[in-house]
Amino acid sequence: MATFIDIHDLPGVKAGDVVPAHEADVRVGPKFGVDYQHYWVGEAAGKVFCLVEAPDREAAIAVHREAHGLVAQDLFEVTQGA
Predict the structure, then answer these.
(1) How many CA atoms lie within 13 A of 43 on its CB side?
(2) Residue 3 — φ and ψ, nearest 5°?
(3) Cα dihedral value 58, 49, 37, 30, nearest 10
(4) Are strands 47-54 and 35-42 parallel, antiparallel or unpaired?
(5) Rounded to the nearest 10 degrees, what angle do helices 15-28 and 57-67 cross at?
(6) Which of 4, 13, 51, 56 could make an S-S bridge to 38, C-beta 3.0–4.6 Å?
(7) CA angle 79, 20, 6 (to 5 degrees)
(8) How many CB atoms are closer than 10 A to CB 48?
(9) Tens of pLDDT along 7-20?
(10) What is the model's pLDDT at position 82?
């Protein structure tokens, strides 16, 4: 499994807006072997960041597409540090 962080540009987003989308990701994720673990909302910047473990980029994208259609603008594979 690889670890990814994605970035959504969503001007005007509020933290509460993201709750149902994340719940949908968690519900759909197992179908693709994906675990959407955490998310962060930067309301002032209009950004949402998601931490996900997935077999590959395509699987991570497929979950967002099927769960709610809010596909991230950027998706980066990352390695955790200390």
Answers:
(1) 5
(2) -110, 135
(3) -30
(4) antiparallel
(5) 110
(6) 51
(7) 25
(8) 23
(9) 999 999 999 999 99
(10) 84
